[in-house]
Design a protein that fits this description.
Order of helices and strands: EHHEEEEHE
Distance between the termini: 16 Å
Number of helices: 3
Radius of gyration: 15 Å
Shape: globular
Number of strands: 6
Helix content: 25-40%
Number of domains: 1
């Protein structure tokens, strides 16, 4: 029987735990960090949108030619959730390492899912 599965890309679900909570509070640092990570991964940045929650916490997305990065922070829990969907030539692992360093995460958990039909 023929395998009809077609993989379009990989979806990285990343959990950054025990981060420096001050670094997760405000949009400027989170935005700058995610853009640095995208550049480090050799992604092609197209557009970005970030939102500052009151009193603190950030959600943001960076659209890349290869798909997207998204991040959501919970400073009170010292946690950030990151998604990277890639269907092109780039290095998501480098982005994850860069964010680990910038957010000062003590623990990083990554799950990779093949996306396709």
């Amino acid at each position: 029987m023929e395998d009809l599965r077609k993989e379009f890309g990989k979806h990285y679900l990343v959990e950054f735990c025990d981060c420096d909570k001050e670094k997760l509070k405000y949009v400027n640092f989170v935005q700058e960090s995610l853009l640095k990570a995208a550049v480090k991964s050799q992604a092609t940045i197209l557009q970005q949108f970030f939102h500052q929650f009151d009193p603190f916490g950030v959600s943001g997305v960076v659209f890349i030619a290869e798909s997207h990065f998204s991040i959501h922070t919970w400073p009170e829990d010292r946690y950030a959730g990151l998604d990277i969907l890639t269907c092109g030539e780039m290095y998501p692992e480098l982005a994850i390492e860069e964010l680990k360093r910038l957010l000062e995460a003590k623990t990083v958990k990554t799950k990779v899912i093949a996306r396709g039909i």
